[in-house]
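User: Sequence recovery, please. Input:
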């Protein structure tokens, strides 16, 4: 009876070892299947990329892009010429309208007896009044800075 107990324990231990080995083999098979599926997927992607590369004619695409660039530049030049022509026509019309408006204004002022050129000649100019204090004002300048101090007042030239 003791021999049977020892023998049974050995069999149980061997069964555990066999079960562990079978689980290890199962995991290896599963890993191999995953690797096979990955290889199949990569093969499919490689075929698709090769097909795409065969379909792309690089010199033709480059020729098309060069033609597009040339036509785009031509269109830009034509657009600029049209814009200049429209601006030129609009400027002529605006100058004519402005001259006509000045004439009408002058006629109205003459009718009411105001001589604009005489009144404007007596008025002080803002340019002369503003330029005088700035010319007399002294300002410290750091070494390595600009030679001329800024007079814009921080409004960035506007």
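Assistant: Recovered sequence (158 residues):
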């Amino acid at each position: 009876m003791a021999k049977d107990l020892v023998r049974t324990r050995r069999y149980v231990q061997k069964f555990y070892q066999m079960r562990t080995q079978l689980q290890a083999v199962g995991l290896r098979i599963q890993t191999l299947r995953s690797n096979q599926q990955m290889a199949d997927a990569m093969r499919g992607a490689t075929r698709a990329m090769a097909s795409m590369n065969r379909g792309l004619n690089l010199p033709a695409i480059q020729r098309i892009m060069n033609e597009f660039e040339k036509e785009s530049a031509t269109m830009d030049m034509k657009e600029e010429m049209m814009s200049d022509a429209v601006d030129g026509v609009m400027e002529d019309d605006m100058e004519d309208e402005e001259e006509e408006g000045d004439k009408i204004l002058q006629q109205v002022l003459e009718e009411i007896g105001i001589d604009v050129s005489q009144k404007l000649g007596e008025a002080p100019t803002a340019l002369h009044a503003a330029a005088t204090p700035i010319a007399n004002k002294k300002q410290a300048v750091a070494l390595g800075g600009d030679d001329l101090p800024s007079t814009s007042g921080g409004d960035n030239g506007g």
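DSSP finds four helices and no strands in the chain.
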